[in-house]
Amino acid sequence: MFSNFLVQFFVKDNENVKNNKVRNSYGTLGGIVGIIINSMLFILKFFVGMLVGSIAITADAFNNLSDAASSVITIAGFKMANKPPDAEHPFGHGRFEYISALIVAFLVMFVGIQFVKSSVQRILNPETITFELIPFILLLISISFKFWLSLFNKFIGNKINSSALKASATDALGDVFTSSTVVLSFLLAKFTTLPIDGYIGVLVALAILYAGFSLVRETLNPLLGEAPDPVLVSSLQEMILSYDMISGVHDLIIHNYGPGRVIASVHAEIPSDIDIMEIHNVIDNAEREVSKKLNLHLVIHMDPICIVTDEIRETRDYVETVLRKHSCIKSLHDFRIVGDGDIKNLIFDIVVSNKDSKSELSEEKLINEIKTSIKEVHNHYNCVITVDYDYI
């Protein structure tokens, strides 16, 4: 496989994809290959477009030129993202990769807008297109190059989990379809005098615009704070629960500061009657070992769980029955009964799904309904309920 050969030849220590320098080498290789291929395709299609007088082919040529410029920005983005942390950016500059992908997306949309205008002008003022066999064959060859470039970008994008390179792969695959449409219009020009070139040019331009819009949406998500990868969430939870004396986890929050720059915090439930130094050592080991395995920075907060008594067990069973009446509640944690005598505090947190996130008034109403239901059976408890939201 030629893609694998390029990686083996140009990227040192290419299997160590968690290393930022190796990752940067992958990004640089992807960018350079993109510049070379897209520049060649621009020259080829621009020449053919001018030769046969096709606005659709010329539009496709400039789309390839914008892709070459995008590759330059991708390389710059990887270089900037690889800068070490500083006083102003203590978590590093990893999000530059997302920003570079966003710039690329806007460039793609700009090209699309320009060629919508040009194609409409061609419809209003049609020109004759002359079909020639050699330019037709050259266009077919250009499609095969673009298809390979899409596979190559997907290969290294998956290898290093790069949103910028995955976006480039998607963009290149979209170009395969738009270029195929252009070639079809060029072939049809041999059989009809209709100004099909202008209409195909509009379709190509709209496809370019759609690709740009899709890229904007995909690259904005990590910048705005998208939900974390479910596989990462599952791995974190499983690894933490594998440690002795940790019986549960909740309030997991993951912050993404760029590929390889992830910070996670979580609450771990531990027995309340265990030696504090012993469990502190377990937590320290978990933080260090899980951080290393998953290439992130993990912070664990210890939540002591009350020793289970008949009172706690029976009360919790009833509270869970009450909570099941509310579909928005996913779980409860930190359940405890505090105090002596006739009046005690019943304290617990509930986790509400973000899909059913409540306004402040609704949240207050939800708490009041739960308290009312509990008071009907356990009037001697003063309920203290905290609402948490599911961030995963």
TrEMBL record:
All residue ranges annotated as the Cation efflux protein cytoplasmic domain in the record: 228-304
| Annotated keywords | Membrane, Transmembrane, Transmembrane helix, Transport
The protein's organism comes out as: Clostridium gasigenes
Q: Which residues form the Cation efflux protein transmembrane domain?
A: 32-224
Whether Transmembrane counts among this entry's keywords is yes
NCBIfam families (UniProt xref): CDF (TIGR01297)
| Membrane-spanning residues | 26-48, 98-116, 128-151, 172-192, 198-216
Family note: Belongs to the cation diffusion facilitator (CDF) transporter (TC 2.A.4) family.
Name the InterPro entries on file.
Cation_efflux, Cation_efflux_CTD, Cation_efflux_CTD_sf, Cation_efflux_TM, Cation_efflux_TMD_sf, CDF_Transporter
State its location(s): Membrane
The Swiss-Prot or TrEMBL record annotates one GO molecular function as: monoatomic cation transmembrane transporter activity
Task: Identify its membrane topology class.
Answer: Multi-pass membrane protein
Q: What name does UniProt use for this protein?
A: Cation diffusion facilitator family transporter
Q: Which GO terms describe its cellular component?
A: membrane
